[in-house]
Amino acid sequence: MKLERDVYIAGVGETVFGKHKMDYDELGRIAAFQAIKSSNIDGPGMIGSAYVGNAHNGIVTGQTIFKDIGICGTAPIINVESACSAGAMAVHLAIKDVAYGLTELSMGVGAENHTLRRKSGTAFMPAMNDIEAVHGGVMTGKYAMRATRYMHETGATIEDLAMITQKSRRHAKNNPHAPYGGDYSIEDIIDSRMIAYPLTLHQCCGVVDGAGAVVVCSGEMIKKLGIEKPVKVRGSVVTSGPYHNRPRDITGDDITEMTSAMLYEESGIGPKDVDILELHDAFTIAELLYYECMGLCEKGDGLKFLRDGLSTYGGQCVVSPRGGMLSYGHPIGASGAAQMAANVKQLRGECNGYQVEPVPKVAMSHVTGGGLSGTEHAACTMHMLTSDW
Amino acid sequence: MAEKKKIKKEKEPDITFFHPDLLEIPKEGLPYLKGYKCKKCGQLDFPKLSPCPTCWSEDFDVVPLSRKGNLYSFSDLYIGQPGLETPYICGYVDLPEEIRIFAMLKGDVNTFKCDEEVELTTGPIRKNADGLPITSYMFQKV
Ligand SMILES: [Zn+2]
After folding, report:
1. Does A84 participate in catalysis according to the annotation?
2. Which one of the listed residues A84, A217, A297, A380 is annotated catalytic?
3. Is ipTM beyond 0.85?
4. Whether A231 contacts A108, CB under 8 Å
5. Chain A 187-216, CB below 8 Å of chain B: which residues?
């Protein structure tokens, strides 16, 4: 999306992720109010519009979240759904409002509670009007087939895949928002329960609840709010997945390749200049493929990039410094907004115990959405943020 | 006054054969998948897309698709959809017509390999709302 004027992030919020007794609306409200307070906003009248991403929790989710915050009746609240991409898409739409002068300040929120409603021990039930879903298709299977093919073509092993989990959970060890952080041995990871060969339990994101929120505003507003560390939105791209039932290379990802190319073009920032990256690492294999798809390294060099330590602290681009979805779990509608909240905190040097050093200046986020048959993913949302002080 | 007859509406049975647009099981001969070739631009698709996403034509010829293809990738699923018995196996099968089919594979876990030849078969893929098995296409080793 071409940004017609400068857009800044004033403040962000995120809840602790994990199994919550609080429903999505309470989680969403906590994250939203954190973002509001950290933006120095002194009253509900300043919020021009709000977008809320959610996938499974029903109708009028945004209005339910915002009723206590006092903008019901004063600002439009629009609910956004595109499976895992919903939260980031909500932020994108808030950015659009500010970029085109419709508002001076807007909010994007992602919130989801899965565990209050869902039986454990099964995969998510896909839509029965999807031909792959009728024939047993699940997201774990889709990613597992990418892993199977990747291993077939490159000779990579399950142990190689497990290194992704090991890295991300080590990153999250001191992150109080991430329930799965810690030191895991490769054996811990590959000996955990098999979910979809070759993906074991610890190579899959957990089913949890949580929320994230982002306040965006104009250049004039960011000064008025007195924000000391304004984060500039350098690019915000939403795409839909190319649809066809023809053979394609699933060790690549057409929609991620397309979306990242558009983001680099829009922001004028190339893949080698990205300091930190939160990506859609719902399964180990995804991260490995996306190094290549996003051009962090050459095609075929993903494993080398990981082994050489280029995606961890001290490396070329710290991938999943917060621990990613593999350490946070993945509340579908929430993750995209929570990734952005975590990136802003890294840019501001606020991540005590898991701060990337030197403090990063360029942060990228990436979240796909949906397993529609005939596409790799139905949607993809990416953002590029830089520190601006 | 004429007596109004109460007509009891019979409940329509839930499907037991998944979609005649997809699969033909002839009385004689082998089952085949039905491709749809656009009469205007010639694009061949499975499953049927209407209108044709390339030219928006709504006229198609039905073309039987090859019964054998290449198993591009697969996964043995130990946690599956709610209601499906596990483990089950799914895979992508590439047909010579440049069409990729997602299907369940008939066979045992730990036995399939990428790039091996598989052929079309039929079998129960899930249960319908009445608890009866739904028949559809599957692939198995040649
Ligand atoms: Zn056509």
Report:
1. yes
2. A84
3. yes
4. no
5. 193-199
